[in-house]
């Protein structure tokens, strides 16, 4: 990759880390469209607990598979701001590493063969001498 391309990738990674690590802490905690539609028909108190009615959200179960980055935080870190920011930054780095690895594996390679030595002018002279 050229020097200019590396700079572009580095700046993009830095911006993604900043957004995931800092700005994500200021995202809305109100339910999105899917959560909101699942609560239709239920009575919800100020803490978000279902107190009555009938809605699909009542069928919600605990996640069977947890993990160190479950629920937009890092397990074991009590500070919510730090936990969310660290979770976002680790997610960006993990995604960048996997994506970079895939691109590295699939990168274009030149044809491998006897003409791959880089001295094409000498090969051209030899072929021209043999033909003449």
From TrEMBL:
Annotated region Disordered: where?
A: 111-132
Q: Which GO terms describe its cellular component?
A: plasma membrane
Q: Which UniProt keywords apply?
A: Cell membrane, Membrane, Transmembrane, Transmembrane helix
| Occurrences of domain PDGLE (ranges) | 7-108
Under the heading InterPro entries, the entry gives: PDGLE_dom (IPR025937)
- Statement: the UniProt record of this protein carries the keyword Nucleotide-binding: no
What subcellular locations does the record give?
Answer: Cell membrane
Biased-composition ranges for Basic and acidic residues?
119-132
Task: Give any Pfam family that matches.
Answer: PDGLE
Q: Where are the transmembrane segments?
A: 86-106
Name this protein carries in UniProt: Cobalt/nickel transport protein
Q: What is the lineage of its organism?
A: Bacteria, Bacillati, Actinomycetota, Actinomycetes, Micromonosporales
